[in-house]
Amino acid sequence: MTTRIIASNINPLQRPGQQTALCYSIAQFLIIMLAIIPFSPAQAKPRTDFPLLNINAGETNILDNTGHSQRYGLEYRFKSFAGPYGFRLIPSVGAAASNNNAYFIYTDLRHDFYMNDQWLLTPSFGIGLFRNGDNFNLGDNKEFRSGIELAYRFDNDYRAGLALFHISNGGLSSRNPGTEVLVFSVSIPIK
After folding, report:
1. How many domains does the chain have?
2. Is residue 2 situated within a structural domain?
3. pLDDT of residue 8
4. What range defines the domain where residue 116 resides?
5. Strands 159-168 and 81-82
6. Which of 41, 77, 82, 178 is deepest in the core (most CB within 10 A)?
7. Is 1 inside a domain boundary?
């Protein structure tokens, strides 16, 4: 039995079921990365705490049937401070723009979970102001942002990572489509 693949000019994410498949693929990737990265906190070298300048680029609407757009961002991550339950919280401020004229200015809090000396898993949550773009309306100018980043820390303390974010107004308005954003980022230490 031969299987034929028919080429199509339709975006694969616009086909039924592809959004769910992409979510599962991203989740599988993160689970595999967590499984193959050895956890060794007892052998970890001393960690320095300094601000980071994060430069990122990616794509918006990765799970939507609407048009995708490129997104570029810049973020400043401050030094951490002592938070509840011994967590070191890292405040940050950032701005992002997309090629469909949408803009997002935000602030958030995050925490670096060191899986070993090089790999970090960083969840974050924040709030910001959003300006709708061409054919890109999130329903309100106040938007919440939650996300997770998997990053590799080099010996010189630079980081390269992949982050997935969800942006939504959390029901502040009757229109709340939300969007998912996938970005590649590079963080530069400011020593």
Report:
1. 1
2. no
3. 39
4. 50-189
5. unpaired
6. 77
7. no
B/e letters for 16-50, b = 16+ CB within 10 Å, e = fewer, are: eeebeebeeebeeeeeeeeeebeeeeeeeeeeeee
Convert the pLDDT of each residue in 126-152 to its tens digit. Answer: 999 999 888 778 888 999 999 999 999
- Backbone angles phi and psi of 34, in degrees to 5: -65, -35
**Is the pTM value of this prediction over 0.70?**
yes
CATH number of the domain encompassing residue 181: 2.40.160.20
| Nearest by Cα to 108 from 137, 132, 73, 135 | 73
Is 36 among the domain residues? Answer: no
Alpha carbon separation from 104 to 120, 143, 149, 180 (Å, rounded): 25, 9, 19, 13
Residue 39: inside a domain: no
